[in-house]
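Aim 2, interim progress: modelling of the adenosine-5'-triphosphate-bound target.
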Amino acid sequence: MPKIRLDKLVKRYGSLEVIHGIDLTTEDNEFTVLVGPSGCGKSTTLRMIAGLETVSGGEIYIDERPVSKLEPKDRDIAMVFQDYALYPHMNVAKNMSFALRLEKRPRKEIQHKVGEVAEMLGLEKLLDRKPAELSGGQRQRVAMGRALTRDASTFLFDEPLSNLDAKLRGQMRAELALMSQQVQKSMVYVTHDQVEAMTLGQRIVVMQDGHIRQQGTAEELFKRPNSRFVAGFIGSPPMNFLDGQITRRGDVAFIEGEGFKLSLPVELAQRALKHPRDTVALGVRPSDLVPAEAGSSDALLLKVLVSEYIGAQSILLTECGPHKVSVEMNSSAPVALGQPLHCSVQKDGMHLFDSETGLSI
Ligand SMILES: Nc1ncnc2c1ncn2[C@@H]1O[C@H](COP(=O)(O)OP(=O)(O)OP(=O)(O)O)[C@@H](O)[C@H]1O
Ligand SMILES: [Mg+2]
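Predicted structure of the complex, ligand included:
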């Protein structure tokens, strides 16, 4: 059964519309991630689901029950915020059991529940500590634990890891992935970090300017982005874009721009030739560029400007005519700065986008 369904959901603040009629259906026990740049409407959407913002149009269904007129407490939802506020005078156990105590649940049940969640989050040894005696990551886990002790069917997270340093974020991300497998609840998770979205989300929903641009698994979004926006947003380092025109000689179609000319694979050529366009953008991921034989005609001729060593891989920042192009390369491959480098595009590594609409061709 679909768990959460947004039906033409609209949000207006006065005359300003910030969510423009979005549709979304999540499955039972699914980990859904809303991702997109700052200001695209992720928090607003989440807050409408939670009941912390009113709905200006459309409807929210939870298990096919319309909930937009219900109080937050009647929606069977628990939420974790970015700026989690723990009660400073209460220890970890008290913080985690706060909602249950408010509901006057039996003591045995509360103890059991807190113990269970504390074990899952690795907080067993910290139950007697006050928030001030915890590290940032531990506090974050308590905030999460406070939500998870609730018997809600749906959990909402708004950038719960954004206050943590990179290493801790990585750790918490893994713990969260593990936890979400264990608890078997529906989760909607908001982040502007595409790596977090890719690693956590079973369904990833990419938003821009109050619209949903695409949704799918990490692999679907990575391999078949439907627009230049999604292509550039998902994947790190980001996809390279080179503007050019489609030309044709005999049976072969090419994309040709300032400083480059590449033949197009047959299927892509057919799609590109169906509707003639003035300009298109070629999209190539840094990992889809591979060194080619010197003098190879069907390759990009790049000039290496900078090499960034990041371990097994290096990111080369290069120039191709007026275009800047990043290339991901095995660090053991010899590269000389300032020197020319021939790179061909791996099979299935070419993407074309309409320059006017930004849509995938
Ligand atoms: N109370 C408000 N009144 C007017 N406009 C608002 C209000 N709250 C949010 N907005 C606007 O709505 C849009 C969406 O905001 P929202 O907070 O949902 O973005 P977000 O995707 O969560 O961004 P971030 O990643 O920065 O948290 C923004 O343009 C924001 O300025
Ligand atoms: Mg936000």
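Residues 2-233 form a domain with the Rossmann fold fold (CATH 3.40.50.300). The pocket of adenosine-5'-triphosphate (ligand 1) is lined by residues 13, 18, 36, 38-44, 192 (CB under 6 Å).
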